[in-house]
Amino acid sequence: MRTTTSDTLTSTRTRRPLLRSAAAWAATLVVALAAGACARLAAVDSNALWKIVDLRCVPSQQATGTPGQCTAVDLDRRYAILKDIVGRSQYLLIPTDRVTGIESPLLFAPHARDYWADAWAARRYVEKSVKRSLPDNQLGLEINSKYRRTQNQLHIHIDCMHAEVSAALARHAKDAPGEWRWDTLNGNRYRIMRVTTLMQAGNPFSRVARDNQNVEAMAMQTILVTGAGAFADKDGWLVVNSGMEVDNGTGSAEGLLDHACRVADGA
């Protein structure tokens, strides 16, 4: 989806009162999805992703052990994976807790999930879609700012990188870990940091929040993560960040991803 888009994170899942019946919501979603356009779905309801996960995927996983409309649901780790309508290989990681987006304080609560690490593990679904393994620096994760998304449920895009962007980022493959360096990609200014883990202190949300310590500042940020080299476990990852407050900055890094995944075809 080009969104382009708990309660506490440790609390036991409880049933939420519904303003409409589950059957009515299901009918609404089926009609929207049948339209075949993610933009139309988002225009109908900015909470559509949340309803798909909360009313369809999670209940199906709980009742039958199958993820329903989603590709996967991990009840223990509290996230779902959903194939996006847009693109041959684009997937979304969506928390099964109500988390609005990059600006949510819940991302920094005690015991908050390391969603970036979970999303990175889910890159295997991209590779299954294109039927081949890809180097880690040709795969990317991305989240849009509050002002460049259409869905008000946190979702991390998982897809291929544009080859020319991966080539440009290669100059940062050996950067000293933990240091921001500025660069221009696709005409926009980004700062780039190489990290050796996506968890805890290396969590990209935490890295970016150190310089954007309030909800309003985080709401303007976009983050992309890709392998620093072909093998991220060895080479590390690149955290790519821009904000709407930066000169020539942007609130969306989704354009650095290639939803056609041409790198899988050698393009």
From TrEMBL:
Ribonucleoprotein recorded as keyword: no
Give the matching Pfam families.
Answer: CDH
Q: What is its EC number?
A: 3.6.1.26
Q: Its pathway?
A: Lipid metabolism; Phospholipid metabolism; CDP-diacylglycerol degradation; phosphatidate from CDP-diacylglycerol: step 1/1
The topology of this chain with respect to the membrane is:
Single-pass membrane protein
Broad class of enzyme this protein falls into: hydrolase
* Entry protein name: CDP-diacylglycerol pyrophosphatase
Q: Which organism is it from?
A: Paraburkholderia terricola
